[in-house]
Amino acid sequence: MEIKILELEKDKARLLIAGEGNTFMNALTEEILTDPEVDVARYRIKYQFSDPELFITTKGEKSPIAVIREACGRLSGFCDELLKDLDAAE
Question: Which residues form the signal peptide (predicted)?
Answer without folding.
Answer: none
